Amino acid sequence: MSSKLTNDQLFxxxxxxxxxxxxxxxxxxDGQAVFYVANTATRSDVKAxxxxxxxxxxxxxxxxxxxxxKTKRFGKSIGKRNDRRKAYIRLKExxxxxxxxxxx
Length: 104
Description:
By secondary structure, this protein is of the alpha+beta class. It has a single domain (7-93), classed as Alpha-Beta Plaits (2-Layer Sandwich). Helix content is 24%, strand content 34%. The chain is built from 3 helices and 6 strands; from the N terminus they run αβαβαββββ. It has helices at 7-10, 21-30, 43-53; strands spanning 14-17, 32-37, 59-67, 71-74, 77-80, 84-91. It has a 4-stranded antiparallel sheet. It has a two-stranded antiparallel sheet with strand order 4-5. The chain is globular. The model has no long low-confidence stretch (mean pLDDT 88).
């Protein structure tokens, strides 16, 4: 399975790493990394983007999920936050992502 995107387009797939208690636990226990990705990104796009952005990192699997935006009140009016797409990336044994070198 290979991505049909160019290198420039692949760099726009990864938006930001997710740094929460849940994502930290996933990194420590399961060897996973969590990223916000573009809403149009597929699993193969995410895999290719991770392997391109981080040298020497091999991706074992990718799980992608959609996070629906919450409805919030802003004063008298009601608004809605944007929908997001998250990717849980399982790395192969011996691979590790250094977030110090990642620039969104």
